[in-house]
Write a structure and sequence with these properties.
This protein is of the alpha/beta class. Helices cover 34% and strands 28% of the residues. The radius of gyration is 20 Å and the shape is globular.
Length: 314
Amino acid sequence: MKICIVGAGHMGRIHAQKLARMKDIVLTCVIDANCAQAEETARKCGAPWSDHYEQALSSGVEGVVIASTTETHFAIARDFLQKGVHVFVEKPIAATPSEATELITLAKKNRLILQVGHLERFSPAFRKARRMVGSPISIEAHRISVFTGRSTDIDVVHDLMIHDIDLALSLNTSDIRRIFAQGAAVFTTKIDVANARIEFADGCVATLTASRVSGVRERLFKIVEKDRYFSLDLAAGHMFSIEKAPNNRKRTLTFKAARPDPVGDELKAFVGAVRGGTEDIVDGEAGLRALLVANRITAEIERRLSGGRKTAIE
């Protein structure tokens, strides 16, 4: 299967290296407007490079991985979908909901795969917990990182928190009743630290924290439901659960993934789906749902920072 990469930044390099090592995959080209960046990544992967994706549109590629800046996602994905090419696009799916909706419609019309890079769905710890979770009562996430200077074209909600938004929405499909949020810009002109409380119509509450200006890196996710508690370390691939057992006893379970590789797993799922398999991917609709909630959270934070009076976005 022939696949090209558009975007040779941090995530693009990771995708390119993993695709180059996959069996039955030909990395046809690494594309980036930054020629030095494209050439370096291509050389390490043993692939050609280019500074524009126009040639790739007519080169017979079957799939494309788009890891460019968010504002370019729509135009690039649209062009490849129109040419009959399956698309894997990094999160967020697009800059606006209308752009995301157009991509979803185009993919369906042309019967193409449109997958969004919400890689935490492929965390072994989350996958293990998801098979066991029934009806969550509360969800809590802490996603914090040191400042790297990457992805400063978007705020921390769309950069980091959107992963946990997607996980929460995958566990609870009921409508959202209210959103409370607050945050602040620290090192950039955009929101760098954010806290959000999402209240679902069924009573479940998700409390999410994201920061890209912290001194440590954490990817923690906790789930509470009746008689059971889950604690996940998504970075390490570990899961711990404890549940109520008969006679007032408790039952515990510990799971540790040997070598978690969610990026590799999501790319394998993309390839499998393109080949007609039944892989569980994060489709365009899921990417749009996460984007809509991320937009609501950002709007609530900006309202509070501007001194708005409304108490929550409903």
